[in-house]
């Protein structure tokens, strides 16, 4: 099958690799976001998808928009059977959706119609969902509203971080996509419409959301910490410094003012919340590495002593 592929981050790269390795498919060209400044030096950096496509000798297109008629003409010239879209990051206008002979398929990291939008992995964990998954969808002009061709699910437990769920879904998606492509006409004929009344929206992550509000219940804060690991990473403040919180679990303990360290040992720091307690087990001071609390207590016990109170306003 003649394919075009549109995607940008690591999640998309894994799907592109599977398509490149499949003898039944020919990836004619790849669309990805323009190179962006990255790292401390802010040098232009290629996306994971661009790196993989370039290494495989596949033409790479990086238009800033797909609404440009000249871009649409370029895509039309490939006469693709299908355009596969995985975490691309640009809106596909109807003119592009209509170009491939069998339309455009999207690999979405949720069990639609739950968590349409930009951050389905993080929002599922933040909401306390016990299950997530991947949906292969026939794209239409709406935001993740198209008919569903196939789904695959996986559990989400109280230890699952966004990084963990990303990897689980990245393992589910490629074989599901290949199975859909192998029987595409029948899958499209049997596609199931989404129940719009059951839809929820996974809004883009704002870095400001990572600030911990200790007046909230411990259960909610634990989910927030897992949802924003590895990005943007939750934080609190300690004596005017921003302290990253990489890992925490709910715990029982005495009551105290929200944000107050109640106890500390090799198992972590016990911190009072608006309801219940959190045990912080992995932290990162400014300029330092992320470390287990047990190691930090040996070096900074005075700064993390019981009675110390964390703030919520970044320095």
Automatic annotation (TrEMBL):
An annotated Gene Ontology molecular function: methionyl-tRNA formyltransferase activity
Formyl transferase N-terminal domain residues: 2-181
GO CC annotation, single: cytosol
Pfam families: Formyl_trans_C, Formyl_trans_N
The reaction(s) this protein catalyses: L-methionyl-tRNA(fMet) + (6R)-10-formyltetrahydrofolate = N-formyl-L-methionyl-tRNA(fMet) + (6S)-5,6,7,8-tetrahydrofolate + H(+)
Enzyme class: transferase
CDD domains the record matches: FMT_core_Met-tRNA-FMT_N, Met_tRNA_FMT_C
EC number: 2.1.2.9
Binding annotation for (6S)-5,6,7,8-tetrahydrofolate: 110-113
Domain called Formyl transferase C-terminal: residue spans: 204-299
Keywords associated with the record: Protein biosynthesis, Transferase
HAMAP family named among the record's database cross-references: Formyl_trans
Function noted in UniProt: Attaches a formyl group to the free amino group of methionyl-tRNA(fMet). The formyl group appears to play a dual role in the initiator identity of N-formylmethionyl-tRNA by promoting its recognition by IF2 and preventing the misappropriation of this tRNA by the elongation apparatus.
UniProt family annotation: Belongs to the Fmt family.
Name recorded for this polypeptide: Methionyl-tRNA formyltransferase
Organism this protein belongs to: Pseudohaliea rubra DSM 19751
Species lineage: Bacteria, Pseudomonadati, Pseudomonadota, Gammaproteobacteria, Cellvibrionales
Gene: fmt
């Amino acid at each position: 099958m003649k394919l075009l592929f549109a995607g940008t981050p690591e999640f998309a790269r894994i799907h592109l690799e599977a398509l490149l390795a499949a003898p039944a498919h020919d990836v004619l060209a790849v669309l990805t976001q323009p190179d962006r400044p990255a790292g401390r030096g802010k040098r232009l950096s290629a996306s994971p998808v661009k790196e993989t496509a370039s290494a495989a000798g596949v033409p790479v297109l990086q238009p800033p928009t797909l609404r440009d008629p000249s871009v649409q003409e370029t895509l039309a010239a490939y006469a693709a059977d299908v355009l596969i879209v995985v975490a691309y990051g640009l809106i596909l206008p109807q003119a592009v959706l209509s170009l491939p002979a069998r339309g455009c398929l999207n690999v979405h990291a949720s069990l639609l119609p739950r968590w349409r939008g930009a951050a389905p992995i993080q929002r599922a964990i933040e909401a306390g969902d016990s299950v997530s998954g991947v949906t292969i969808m026939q794209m239409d002009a709406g935001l993740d509203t198209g008919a569903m061709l196939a789904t695959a699910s996986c559990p989400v437990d109280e230890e699952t971080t966004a990084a963990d769920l990303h990897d689980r879904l990245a393992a589910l998606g490629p074989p599901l996509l290949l199975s859909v492509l192998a029987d595409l006409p029948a899958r499209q004929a049997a596609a199931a419409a989404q129940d719009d009344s059951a839809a929820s929206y996974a809004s883009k992550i704002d870095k400001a959301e990572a600030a911990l509000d200790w007046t909230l219940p411990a259960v909610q804060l634990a989910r927030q910490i897992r949802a924003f690991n590895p990005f943007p990473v939750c934080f609190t403040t300690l004596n005017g410094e921003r302290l990253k919180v990489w890992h925490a679990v709910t715990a029982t303990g005495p009551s105290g003012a929200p944000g107050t360290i109640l106890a500390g040992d090799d198992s972590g720091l016990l911190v009072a919340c608006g309801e219940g307690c959190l045990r912080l087990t992995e932290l990162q001071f400014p300029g330092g590495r992320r470390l287990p609390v047990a190691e930090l207590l040996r070096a900074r016990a005075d700064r993390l002593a019981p009675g110390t109170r964390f703030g919520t306003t970044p320095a």
